Amino acid sequence: MKMLINGKWVDKPEKINIVNPYDDTLVDTVPAGTEDDVEKAIESAVEGFIINRDLPVHRRISILKKTAEIMESRFDELAKTIATEGSKTIKEARKEVGRAINTITISAEEARRLNGETIPFDSAEGSENRVGYYYRFPIGIIAAITPFNDPLNLVAHKLGPAIAGGNSVVLKPATVTPLSALKLAECLLEAGLPEKVLSVVTGYGNKIGDALVSDDRVRMISFTGGVEAGEEIMKKIGLKKVGMELGSNSPVIVMNDCDLDPAVESCVSGAFWAVGQNCIGVQRIYIHEDIYDEFKNQFVARTKQYKTGFQLDEETDMGPMINEKEAIRVIKWVDEAVEMGAACLTGGTREGSLVQPTVMENMPPGAKLDCQEIFGPVVTLYKVSTLDEAIEKSNAVNYGLHGAIFTSNVNHAFHAIKHMDVGGIIINDSTDYRVDLMPFGGVKNSGLGREGIKFSLQEMTEPKVVCFNL
Ligand code: NAP
Q1: What is the pLDDT, as a whole number, of residue 52?
Q2: Can you give the pLDDT at residue 113?
Q3: Rounded distance, CA 100 to CA 372, Å?
Q4: Domains of the chain by range and CATH?
Q5: Ligand 1 pocket test, candidate residues 206, 222, 401, most atoms within 8 A of CB
Q6: What is the pLDDT of residue 11?
Q7: How do strand 130-138 and strand 461-469 relate by DSSP bridges?
Q8: Which residues approach ligand 1 with their CB closer than 6 A?
Q9: Beta bridge partners of 144
């Protein structure tokens, strides 16, 4: 595919190979964009901003609604693209396409609800004759940078609200999975999005990232990815708005009063969805000692039933990691933990980029698996005696995106809600629960700001006060 700059599909002599991570077969190529391409995209976005800012809201709504219809008509193709350039199985990919359509549809709906309010100026002495209000206006050019693990829906989470709010966007998708993003751009253009409102520059973040994030014409950086890249970007952006959706190593607490079977099922799915390459994937499970052995036995038995393999095979439960290098890293972390005294209950092996779903216990404090983000199919079980111990251990990391608790005791639930240091807490489901309209984001190193269309729209617009002196 080609990249999209200034309304034109642009090719370059230097290409990036997009391969299927299962067997490294070539899926397609995209151009390796340069800093010069970023410059052209930003120049175009300067005009694109004026165009979208001046579009009546009903036009933005109809473009986004039409985009959702076109995505629906290309449903199978989009799902296959996700499951071919990335790690997800075809079943997981279909869910992502459904969610991305929903994300764009909600963006259309929220465009209508971008309200202001009147201001009681006369509540201040001396302002008796003043009346006015505020409304929200778009901020300008938004640079959107997205990761590989949800290559369609996380792009939709940036483009939908940015366009709904009247901004222009320069998108840099993950280098390994740009095809889904380019296809979403095709849908938007076909739906009537004015050409200059969106550019998509494909290319390596470490080569073209600086030109994008440090340009003064760009007014907001909306980034989803790892902490390392997030911190690097923060050093370079100067005075701009920023949204940072970063990683985590999500904790789940399983109390002895919970309904065990659904807890096991939900935690297994949450740990191994998208091969554990999931910012809200279950990584640490704190289980009450009374039910530890039973939970462990069921959890390991269920994990052993997982079928890993080719993403497009309908029978596959878990596909490959995004590349072999990542699979090697995951096994290295497992081996390191075992050397430090941890036990591997199942998994812990790989073949190429396929890692077997892995369950650990007796994790020593300080092992990478204990405190860093694995971003792979490895989960650790911890035995705890009390809810407070579970909460204290859950919080003892630098991340805080989602937390979860399984319990039938409402007091336990409220205690966890109050004391877990996270951006979202799920009761009686795993951390891997999200709908696209809820506020989504983390505390600590998990990020800054919130996504979820209504909330992104607030971040991507500013209030302008209007005051009449009568
Ligand atoms: P990543 O390596 O941080 O890359 C994310 C994006 O940033 C890619 O497009 C990448 O480009 C770009 N990038 C890297 N360095 C850059 C720089 N210096 N300047 C500008 N752009 C730069 O993350 P990933 O491996 O794709 O994704 C995994 C991470 O994302 C995990 O930590 C996961 O938890 C997090 N994540 C968070 C959320 C959330 O909503 N909180 C959702 C999904 C994923 P290249 O591809 O060219 O390197």
Answers
A1: 98
A2: 96
A3: 29
A4: 3-246+446-469 (3.40.605.10), 250-435 (3.40.309.10)
A5: 206
A6: 97
A7: antiparallel
A8: 145-150, 154, 172, 174-175, 204-206, 209, 213, 224-226, 229, 232-233, 245-247, 279, 373, 375, 401, 447
A9: 171, 222
Chain position carrying tokens 């596909």: 319
Q: Active site residue: 187, 279, 326, 373, which one? A: 279
Which residue's CA is the closest to the ligand 1 atom numbered 31? 226
For residue 108, give the 3-state DSSP assignment.
helix
171 alpha carbon to ligand 1 midpoint, in Å?
A: 13
Phi and psi at residue 217, to the nearest 5°: -70, -20
Active site residue 245: yes
pLDDT of residue 1: 98
Q: Which residues pair with 237 in a beta bridge?
A: none
Q: Of the candidates 156, 185, 176, 153, which has an alpha carbon nearest to the alpha carbon of residue 3?
A: 185
Q: Which are the contacts of 293, defined by CB distance < 8 A and separation ≥ 6? A: none
Q: Please give the backbone phi and psi of residue 171, each rounded to the nearest 5 degrees, phi first.
A: -105, 135
Cβ atoms of 1 and 289 within 8 Å: the answer is no
The per-residue pLDDT for 78 is 99
Cβ neighbours for 253, distance < 8 A, ≥ 6 positions apart: 285, 286, 384, 387, 390, 391, 394, 403, 404, 405, 406, 407, 416
What is the greatest pairwise CA distance in the chain? 77
Contact predicate 286/252, CB 8 Å: yes
Residue that is written with structure tokens 């696209």 in the block: 436
- Positions in the chain whose pLDDT score sits under 50: none
Token pair for residue 159? 């483009």
> What does the CA dihedral 169, 48, 459, 372 come to, rounded to 10 degrees?
10
